[in-house]
Automatic annotation (TrEMBL):
Protein name: Dihydrofolate reductase
Organism field: Dyadobacter fermentans (strain ATCC 700827 / DSM 18053 / CIP 107007 / KCTC 52180 / NS114)
Stated role: Key enzyme in folate metabolism. Catalyzes an essential reaction for de novo glycine and purine synthesis, and for DNA precursor synthesis.
Family: Belongs to the dihydrofolate reductase family.
One GO BP: tetrahydrofolate biosynthetic process
Pathway(s) this gene product operates in, as recorded in its UniProt entry: Cofactor biosynthesis; tetrahydrofolate biosynthesis; 5,6,7,8-tetrahydrofolate from 7,8-dihydrofolate: step 1/1
E.C. numbers: 1.5.1.3
Listed GO MF terms: dihydrofolate reductase activity; NADP binding
GO (cellular component) term, any one: cytosol
Amino acid sequence: MNTKPHLSIIAAMSENHVIGLNNSLPWHLPDEWAHFRKVTAGKAFIMGRKSFEAPDALHSEYRNVIITSRPPAQAEPRVEYARDISGAIALLSDETDVFVLGGASVFEQMLPLADRMYLTIVHAQVEGDAFFPAFDSDDWQLADSEFHGADDDHAYAFSMNLYIRKP
């Protein structure tokens, strides 16, 4: 039986929608990374090539599907390649939960298909060159939110939010 997996977008963005600068995250938030690892443990990831190759990229220890028009001749272990979103979803049709890690164009294409968004809001305006796409908040219900203040390890306060698509 071939069914579509539950697609969850997971991202952190600033209040001005920045998600990246020079193919890296513009902040260092250890507790947010710990949250990411807990939420995504043992799950398959879909991401674009640049996100996969970013110096601070997080990879699934289970399964990574990379969207690229130029897959390498030899894939690394636990890495598969797809030419587009539908190909990536088809490769993961046997999974129950799949996390979408970006970048910006992948988020934009996946937003209409996603069931959930684990979206951390970094409470700052930061410089960046990659942005999370605008979305209609009327389509989403905030199911959970956890605020984390700035401290010695976190330059910015942030809120880890879980949104579920309204039926």
